[in-house]
Write a structure and sequence with these properties.
about 150 residues, alpha+beta, 3-stranded antiparallel β-sheet, two-stranded antiparallel ribbon, 1 helix, elongated
Length: about 150
């Protein structure tokens, strides 16, 4: 780089610098140059959108995805792990404690609170659910209750 007084600055660019900048530019903006998905139609089963209504989107260019998020979807009595239902907690009765895997090898949660140091384990509650499509939820009865 050469500087003449305080006026315009001349920059000597090397071939490597130019190639690096070009590569960076193409890498950052490659997503803008690729084709977007094309939607040919949308079909909704039912007259209005509601819980459980199936929506089908048809088209091309969506790409392939091996695992769609979420990998874990927990509805308490049914837990979906990588799309596979785990019904372990479905047989739990009202108020049943959620214990750690060292006490229940089939337990989903590895670090739920326990009775040590004043903690109280979370439990299953089937009363006071938040909607028609939820049949159970976790209850945290103590200030030191947690799932993890």
């Amino acid at each position: 780089m050469w500087v003449k007084a305080m006026l315009p600055i001349k920059i000597k660019m090397s071939h490597k610098w130019l190639v690096s900048c070009s590569t960076l530019f193409l890498t950052l903006f490659a997503g803008f140059t690729s084709a977007a998905p094309v939607i040919n139609g949308i079909q909704i089963d039912g007259s209005e959108l509601a819980q459980g209504v199936l929506i089908k989107v048809r088209g091309s260019g969506f790409g392939k995805k091996s695992q769609a998020a979420p990998k874990l979807y927990d509805k308490t009595d049914i837990v979906y792990e990588n799309g596979t239902p785990n019904l372990h907690y479905s047989s739990y009765l009202e108020g049943a404690d959620i214990v750690r895997q060292d006490q229940d090898p089939e337990a989903l949660w590895t670090k739920s609170s326990e009775y040590l140091w004043g903690g109280v384990p979370p439990n299953i509650s089937r009363s006071g659910t938040r909607g028609a499509h939820v049949s159970a939820h976790y209850s945290m009865p103590g200030i030191k209750s947690y799932l993890g």
